[in-house]
Structures are given as C-alpha cells and as structure tokens.
Amino acid sequence: MNGSDSRPTRPGAVLRKGNPMRLSWIAGVVLAATTVTAQPTVVNSFPASSFGSVFPGGIGYDWRSDNLFVVDETNKVAYELTRMGSLVSTIDLGLLGMTYPIGGGVDGTGQRLYIAEEINDKVWEVDLSNRTVITMISTTAYSDPSGLDFNPVAGTVVTSDDAAGVIHEISLATGQPVTTLSVKALSGDADGLGVNAFNGMYIVGDDTGATILEIADDGFVMNSWASKTYGIQDPEGICMDPQNGNYFVTATVAPYTVYEVSGGLTLRPALTADMVTVPANTVVTIKLRTDSARWPLGGIALVAVGGGSMPPLVLAQGLVDGRGHVTFRFRNPGLGGIRATMIGAGFSTSASQLSTILDITLN
Questions:
Q1: CB–CB of 37/262 below 8 Å?
Q2: Pairing state of beta strands 20-24 and 339-343?
Q3: What are the backbone dihedrals phi and psi of residue 293, each rounded to the nearest 5 degrees, phi first?
Q4: Does the pTM exceed 0.85?
Q5: What is the pLDDT of residues 186-226, one digit of tens each?
Q6: Tens digit of each residue's pLDDT (9 = 90 or more) over 156-190
Q7: Sign of the torsion angle spanned by Cα atoms 233, 238, 240, 241
Q8: What residue ranges in 48-142 does DSSP mark as E strands?
Q9: Long-range contacts (CB closer than 8 Å, 24 or more residues apart) made by 1-6
Q10: C-alpha angle 181/183/185, rounded to 5°?
C-alpha cells in the first residue's frame, strides 16, 4: 500500500503494511463502520392477493418464527405468513377495535405486534399468544401515524407521520415520544417506516417518490436508493430480518406485492469490534460522523491503551463540528498490539451512542 489509501472500513477490515499498530474499537462510543452491501437486489416477491390482502400497508417480522405480519387497512386484517408468502393465520383487527390499521411491527421477543392506526391517531399493542389487545396509545397530541416498527436497539416503538414529515420514538411505558426527528426536507412522503435492527437507524419508505432512505436519528442520510428502479413503485411497509440483514417491503399500488430485498443498507452491528492495522511511523487520518445530538460538548479523544502497567497514551483529539463530524490525525509512534477506543468525557456507554467511520486515510 503506497501513498495514501482512503476507503470506508468494513467488518473485519484490516489495512496492513510494515510493523503494524492494531486499533480495536471497544466499548466507549462504539464505531459502526459504514458497510453498505452492494446494490439492492430483490431476492423474492409474491403478490398480496395470494394470501387475501388488497392493501398491504404495513409489515413486521418475527425472527423467532421466521414469519411476517402484513397489515391490511382495507380488510382490517393482519396476515401471518411464512417469509415465502404462505398464509399461517389471520387476526381480525376490526374486532379488536381498529378502523384504519396501516403500519405494523413485531417486538424482539416475537410476543407483541404493534399497529399504527392513522386518522384515529393510535398505536395498538397486541398479544400474539392470544390475539388480544394489551394496550392502546393515543398519539393525537403529537402524531397521525402511518409507518411503524419496533426499535430493538432502543426498545421503543417508532412511528412516522407522513403529512408532518416527522418520526417519533415512543416510550411504551409512558406513551409519549422520547425523540422527534423532522424528515420533511429529506422525504416528501415518509409513509413507510422500518428500523435497521443492526444499528437502530430508520428505514424510510417514501411512497410518492418511490425511494427508500436510511436515516440516522440525527437526520444524517446514510443511504438512499430509488426503489422504482427495482420494480418497487410505492414502498409503504418496511421491516428487517436481523438474522441476515434482508428487509421486506410492501408496495401499495398494483400489483400490490411483498418484496424481500438484499443490499443497500448499512449492515454493521453497533456493538461489535472493528480492526484496522496502521503501519509504524505512518500518519493516519480518521474521519468520523458522531451522533451530534448526544455529543454536545464536542470534545473526543482517541486513546491507545497499553498493556500491563503502561498508562493510556492519547494519540489525538478533536472537536465535533456542526454536522457531527470529527477528524483525528496522528502518526503511529511504532507501538504494536495496541487496543484503542473512542471516549467522550461525561458520557456513559450506550447502544444508542453510535459513531460511523466515514473514511480512513494512511499516508
């Protein structure tokens, strides 16, 4: 590797040259490297009519049973399906009191189905073991929800209000939003909403623009692709399979289809290690995007932790700019086998404190 090499890292990525210093990102603020799996590929699809749906507006995935739950607003039914589209069971949502059920999501235990009801401004929690309503949350004070998913990273229900262009993370304990993000400038019609189970980012289905966007909780657009290029004209419902990173999308224009898609999203778990080898006496520049909303003080230090009684050696420190970006530049002093971490004074470790490597340059 001669001169400079600038590229995003990926899980397990190693840059080698000479006598290396290995940087292993560990707990503190855990770095989630930007790893986008190639271009989107539709790996499977089946018509909604094959299981009786006429308007598949929402979709949730239960990884324990490997089944999907498709919410139909017109029929007022939730259809439980295998991932290949075979009907398993149905839930009559009208009998449960819902008039306009549109968005759907399943919690991480596979025991709860959450449904957004637009117009009536409600979020319903349904027990999947006995198909009864556990609770109903009124969102009239802050949202008319259309898209919905369960966020396994934060343990919240996430809804999108397409008219207002707002995403809310809702506490199940209080029924109130704990975070609010305006995406009006990013999406003209954020009707569909899913959560990236790897890192908690939002997957927005803009059905009017036939676009799918991956957005961090500070509004940073990680990825965006035109779903219509792949035959998905009106992406309304979205959910992810955390086992393989594929995601399911429902389209609410003829021929009303459920798609399974691979690729196009960041598939980097937020809480795993990433290795980068830096050659001795080489200058390294690391540019990061942090969650600026959670790092208001701006001061971050890159620390190399030595072995035994050796005290930590601060290699570089930097300030977060207005976009949430921070750049570190330092020369490897020739140390080998070094473990490093990102730290910020006064902040505790949290799964929601994500940072993303934008690029690493060696020169």
A1: yes
A2: unpaired
A3: -65, -25
A4: no
A5: 888 888 999 988 777 899 999 888 999 988 777 878 788 99
A6: 999 999 888 999 999 999 999 998 999 988 888 88
A7: negative
A8: 56-62, 67-72, 77-82, 87-92, 101-106, 112-117, 122-127, 132-138
A9: 1/279, 1/362, 3/363, 4/361, 4/362, 4/363, 5/361, 5/362, 6/359, 6/360, 6/361
A10: 140
Two tokens at 208? 């009017």
* Residue showing tokens 């490597």: 357
With beta carbons less than 8 A apart as the criterion, state whether 30 and 270 touch: yes
At CB < 8 A and 24+ separation, what contacts does 89-94 make? Answer: 90/52, 91/126, 91/131
Pick from 240, 238, 237, 202: nearest CA to 73: 237
**Residues belonging to the chain:** 363
Residue at token pair 């949502």: 93
Q: Is 33 exposed, middle or buried (0-12, 13-18, 19+ CB in 10 A)?
A: buried
Take residue 146 and report the two structure tokens written for it. 């259309």
DSSP state letters, 296-340: TT-EEEEEEEPSTTPPPEEEEEEE--TTSEEEEEEE--S--S-EE
